[in-house]
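Field: COMPLEX_INPUT
Field: COMPONENT_COUNT = two
Field: RESIDUE_TOTAL = 713
Field: MODE = joint
Values follow.
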Amino acid sequence: MNLHTFRKFHEEGLISGASFEKVKAAESRRLFSLHWELKVLLYLGVLLLSGGLGILVYENIDTIGHQAVLAVIALISAAGYWYCNKKKSPFSWQKVPTPDPLFDYLLLLACLTMVTFIAYLQYQYGVFGDHLKLAGFVPMVILFFCAYYFDHLGVLTLAITNLAAWMGIVVTPTQVLRQNDFSNSTLIYTGMLLGGMLVTAGEISAWKKWKAHFRFTYVNIGLHVLFIACLAGMFHFEHRYFAWFLLLLGIAFYCYRQALRHHSFYFIVIMALYTYIGLGYVVVRLLEKIYTNDLGPIYLGLIYLIASAIAMILGLIRFNRKMKKA
Amino acid sequence: MIAYNSIWLDNIALQQEATEAYRRHCITAGERERIVQAYPEGFYTPNSYIRIGLFLLTAIIVLFSLGLLMLILADALEDAWRGMLVFSGLTALGALELFIHDPKHYRSGVDDALLWSGVALVSIPFCVDTSLPAWACCALVGLVALAATLRYADSLLAALAVVSLLGCLFYGYHPLGAFAQSTAPFLLMTGSLAIYILARKWGKALRWRHYAHCCTVMEITALLTLYAAGNYFVVRETGNALLGLHLLPGQDMPAGGFFWASTVLLPLLYIVLGVRGKNTILLRTGLVLLAAAVFTIEHYYDVASLEAEMIVGGLALVAFAWALIRYLEEPRHGFTYREDTSSGHQEAAQAESLVIADTFPPPEPSPDPGFKFGGGSGAGGGADGHW
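Field: COMPLEX_OUTPUT
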């Protein structure tokens, strides 16, 4: 806050003398915050530590030391859980404030080492036998439990990515388009199922007030999975693409209602972008049918894509105005 | 000079001051409302998500229009593609002027997309497949970026201008002879330092107040180029690639000691100066570059096995951060752990959870006996994919 500015406001009678004094006092007491720097350092520390332990286990898998390594990992995980359990505020279905800055990161470390530990048990001792699905299921359940018990959004997101991996889908944000094989119809159906489950879970969280602040995480990931699976369905099932498109419109409508209800600009933008892609595909397919061999459909397709993008822009601008007034 | 209404830009700054004061409970809601009434602005600036959407859609329009134009003119184009691109770029910039003039777009996504694509389309024909020397390309891009920065106060273009200017300096200087080759890093370091000092000065000047954010980005860019120009790895590899030094692995390069010193000491210097001057830019740049210094050492010396380094480094980071957080629980020497403002907390938590999901992918259950299990592989990576 610039004192000159507020002196001017005061002289112009825009703010009272008492307010100006408050500004002056606040500015003289102003502190330099290292909040985000320290948080990032903690996060990097946890990242390095759990990554290093993972490699350590992997490197030592057939040596004498592996039981010692296993013990160390179990110890770190247990110590992390013990600390978090001691420090945590009593459980509530509402949002619970974090007891101290270290809590979030130690919980993350405990959860990550727990996942490594179970994977290691399965690899070395085959505790789950041939039930490989179970080896993915157990850590996922523990992660979901921790997310609710300790109220941690990051662990919830980890649990969701583990759930998706257990069902056979990669949903980590930067990998979702690269690592999934969308020409596989099972994957598309699984995606629809997973997306539907996540959105439902989000809606139930909000409705029953079971950690209502988890809603956004569930619905956000769920909607992306639904939209992407729908688009993949349109591209993959060539003859039934229109049915998938109708499904896409249905999801888009739900997304639009969500956006209106929760005043979310974010949902309106993803709705617009996915719908633009789906609609563009349908129009290009229709144009292909009308014309056959010259450049006509390409011209028309390009003109359509330009015109519809302009229409989308106007729509978004109008929507933005509407939301601001509301 | 600046395309946007400068009174409105001033008023935005005043409104932001008022909002901050309101958030810190210094002024009342009524007082903030009075300030907003007294200093109005009429720009069209949407919510930041809408801005991203508008940006993507505008970029799509520019790309498809370009495609359409190329298709129509395909036969006539042959050699005229450069002219066509420049023409398209100028058209985009013309459209930008219209959007700023009438619907008063300001940081709306539409103006950002038109500006960046316009500058790219105007510059690309001079840089791709040309007979122009590299320094002339850099100079041209630098001038275009500089002019666009002055007119539209865009911070990304300010960074582009700094980088192209330094590139022009480097490509123009190093072919001048053996002396020039060996002193090129020092020239770049001096140039970066000069830009940093100027940007700091301009950032505080009343005359350049609408460009304060550009100056911030210029400062960061100059700090990064200053470090890069003195980094052992960068100097050695550019020496090998461009200047034909042909150093063998293990062979030291001329003035190697100096470059090792600047590789390690510059980040520390940034951090110390940042803490002493309470300068966030210096501090954060220093912290990021400390990682670069570690990677540089890692590249040339095998200090310990990777996992041992990761575990020790991780423990040290957690312990250091934890100790400092405990120490700063009560504010000391003007520093605190507490957050500056409480705004946007929920969104930050959501973004953080996505970063976590991205850096710790779940282990893949696979029957293959050689399977690797996770606990976190891969580094960094933002959540940019879906945010």
